[in-house]
Design a protein that fits this description.
Rossmann fold, two-stranded antiparallel ribbon, 7 helices, 7 strands, hydrolase activity, acting on ester bonds, SGNH hydrolase-type esterase domain-containing protein, signal, SGNH_hydro, SGNH_hydro_sf
Length: 226
């Protein structure tokens, strides 16, 4: 429950009224505290772990209920945009190399008031996403990039559901190198519209069943050859 409360608070920094400098600074402060935890966990895991990277969709996954034969390190940062996570990814590079990395990012870049489907913001997201993918790819034997999860009906006034699909396509386009694989582990959680969650799949902004959504993907990540 404590993690859920922290994640909800961090999400509100982005989805609340106005993305002020103070809110952005608080997300950066939260990222700094998360990095201290991640560094400790990564040192304990050593090389060959599986890294979970991204925003609150990753952080809320928590720890796996079932092992997959490798240590798992959760480097999710609630409230992170691609700009925030670009900084986090660069900080991760000198630390222990991962066997595989799973990246889920983009939800916090989809605010309607920020006009995510404008040409400027599409280009901005594409550039930052490509940089994150390249950075994480350098420190992993393989990289799995996911589509952006759908959002609940109660979030559609704040979040542009059409941008969920458009930004997912941008992530897929950036994930082109042989070591990078793009997947959509959230198909079962989507309604007819790609960016909208089926009834009962979300608690507000976030999915209810992250463990189930990522289960097959993580088994594949653990088994990928070195």
């Amino acid at each position: 429950m404590a993690l859920v409360a922290v994640v909800a608070a961090a999400a509100l920094l982005v989805f609340g009224a106005g993305r002020t400098t103070a809110r952005v600074a608080r997300v950066a402060d939260y990222a700094e505290s998360r990095l201290a935890v991640v560094k400790h966990q990564m040192a304990a895991a050593g090389p060959g772990h599986v890294l979970l990277a991204g925003d609150s969709n990753i952080e809320l996954f928590g720890a796996p209920r079932e092992g997959c034969g490798r240590e798992l390190v959760n480097a999710g940062v609630s409230g992170a945009t691609v700009k925030n996570y670009d900084t986090v990814a660069r900080r991760l590079v000198p630390w222990a190399r991962a066997h595989a990395t799973v990246l889920t990012i983009g939800t916090n870049d989809l605010l309607r008031k920020s006009e995510p489907l404008s040409a400027h913001n599409i280009d901005r997201f594409a550039g930052a996403a490509a940089t994150i993918i390249a950075t994480l790819g350098e420190r992993s034997e393989s990289l799995i990039v996911t589509a952006i999860p759908p959002v609940g009906n109660n979030q559609l006034s704040a979040v542009d559901a059409d941008a969920v699909e458009r930004y997912s396509a941008i992530l897929q386009e950036a994930c082109r190198k042989p070591h990078c694989v793009f997947v959509d582990p959230f198909k079962a959680e989507r309604a007819a519209a790609f960016g909208v969650a089926r009834e009962g799949a979300t608690e507000g902004l976030h999915l209810v069943r992250y463990q189930a959504a990522y289960a097959g993907l993580l088994r594949d990540a653990c088994r990928r050859p070195d």
